[in-house]
Amino acid sequence: MAERYHPGVVIVSVVVLCRNAVPTLPRFLETLGDLHRRTLPDFPELVFVDDASTDGTTRLLFHWGETAFLPVKVLGLDRPSGRGACLREALALTSGDAVAVVSADEKNFPDKLRILLDAYVDTADVVLADASPRPLDRISIALIGALAGLPIALRRPAAAGLSLWNADVLRRSLADGDGFALAANMLARARTAGATIRVTENVRSEAPPLRPRLLDWIRAPANDVRP
Predict the structure, then answer these.
(1) φ, ψ for residue 41, nearest 5 deg
(2) What's the domain count of the chain?
């Protein structure tokens, strides 16, 4: 599917999706020192997209970025647009061979990304952290995953808050929409195109999973679904 990269050559763009993240951002930003020293010695940028926060998230990011140790790009949206729109805006700003997508409330991000990166350069075009959806969400997640044509192993991690994609695969897989429908459709598109998708069961995403929206999935345009 995608060209394999030697571990020393992979350049990773880290996309951080934020909304009213002031309570969690300081801790998250503090961990990025380890990201630079131990996890990704060679990567071009951090790209933050703030989904119209009302708590000063964008100001905090601009202030931090002024003294950051690597290039930082911060984009603040004027109105809430959802995860899908934020990701589409972020991709226009990335330049890496691979793109890590993470929420600003993810814990232990550098250690988790190191494991995902090892799996990526070894066997995969897309690597997902496992997810632990709330019990009431599991039925909807399973149903949407089945409708999207995802194998059982991919239905739960489709809601994960942490993933690593080959940049070309991500751009080709990203479609209109938001929430769980977006995640399921992206994986279905990547799988149909022949991408190798791997779930790292030893890495669990601690960020809140996307809420599955069955009606949104059903109402999605026909060209937004690749079962």
Answers:
(1) -65, -20
(2) 1
